[in-house]
Amino acid sequence: MSKKVVIATVKPFSPAARQQVEALLKKAGYETAAIESYEGPGPLHAAVADANALIVRSDKIDAEVIAAAKELKLVVRAGAGYDNVDCAAAKGAGVAVMNTPGQNSNAVAELVFGMMVYMARGQFNGKPGTELKGKTLGIHAVGFVGRAVATIAKGFGMNVIGFDPFVDADKMKASGVTPVSSVEDLYSKSDYVSLHIPATAETKGSIGKALLSRMPQGGVLINTARKEVINDAEMAEVLAERADLKYATDIAGDNDAELKEKFAGRYYSTPKKMGAQTLEANTNAGVAAANQIVAFFEKGDRTFVVND
Ligand code: 3PG
């Protein structure tokens, strides 16, 4: 009997990307099914019942979903951050979890610059703004996205510095990033900080007053990472205390309405997380996920497993 792959995406792939993913899997002899834009856990629980593998985005794959998926062997998060998947519950049930690192980085990096220009030009209000050229950009975590941001920043003529305790200095330098020795130093020196840290127990709520108040006059924080890494209360406090600071995010926090109301002109949030929402990123991540599924079942390839 052929294996079944379910594509579960609350935020759907572009139709062309999904078609490519399905065609690849069908050609390899797999059955496919998809649920998109579903509401609540019910449809997901039903859809995973006979799935052998799942392709998801930010869809919440918790212990209940894993328990409802009796035939499941593999979950592939078509994207980078897998904080939406309960990796321990998956491991306990013998289910491997993978991500597709790097596949959607360029899309996210391009959005960072869209947001930086938008903030530098007063949200396109027609008044004189500032330029990115000559400014210092601090990249907080220098993984695939951080490095793609660095590449684009050079084209804008920015001075690029970075902090990442998990990436060695030579690797950063090879990507055009001058490493700084502490996270405090990064914020103190950066006119713009672009966040690329994952949401983990250590990073949740870690971006607050202590770091933000270090930023130079007119500092701008750009968040295309995760809302959970921001300390919402302290963000509101710092924006109130420092009328020069700005914050733009692709993942609105729970205090989005408050920030919009109090700090119009200095705060911006996208209506829906859209960093990875391009045809190219959807195709790259979706196709990589499909290829990883085929390699896992046909060759036992566990290269991208994150919960071993
Ligand atoms: C990622 O972790 O890959 C990005 O945050 C994109 O997430 P999305 O697939 O939910 O848009």
Give structural notes:
The structure is a single chain. With 308 residues, this protein is α/β, with parallel strands linked by helices. It has two domains: 4-103 and 278-299, NAD(P)-binding Rossmann-like Domain (Rossmann fold, 3-Layer(aba) Sandwich), CATH 3.40.50; 105-269, 3-Layer(aba) Sandwich (Rossmann fold), CATH 3.40.50.720. 37% of the residues lie in helices and 17% in strands. It has twelve helices and twelve strands. It has helices spanning 15-27, 42-48, 63-68, 87-92, 105-120, 144-155, 169-174, 183-189, 209-212, 232-241, 256-262, 279-299, and strands spanning 4-9, 31-36, 53-56, 74-77, 96-99, 136-140, 159-163, 178-179, 192-195, 220-223, 246-249, 267-269. The strands form two sheets. A seven-stranded parallel beta sheet has the order 8-7-6-9-10-11-12, sandwiched between helices. Strands 2-1-3-4-5 form a five-stranded parallel beta sheet, with helices on both faces. Strand 10, helix 10 and strand 11 form a beta-alpha-beta unit. Helix 1 (15-27) packs parallel to helix 12 and helix 5 (105-120) packs across helix 6. The longest helix has 21 residues, at 279-299. The protein is elongated, with a radius of gyration of 20 Å. The mean pLDDT is 98. The protein binds 3-phosphoglyceric acid. 3-phosphoglyceric acid binds at residues 11, 57-58, 79-81, 104, 273, 275-276. Residues 11, 57-58, 79-81, 104, 273, 275-276 line the site of 3-phosphoglyceric acid (3PG).
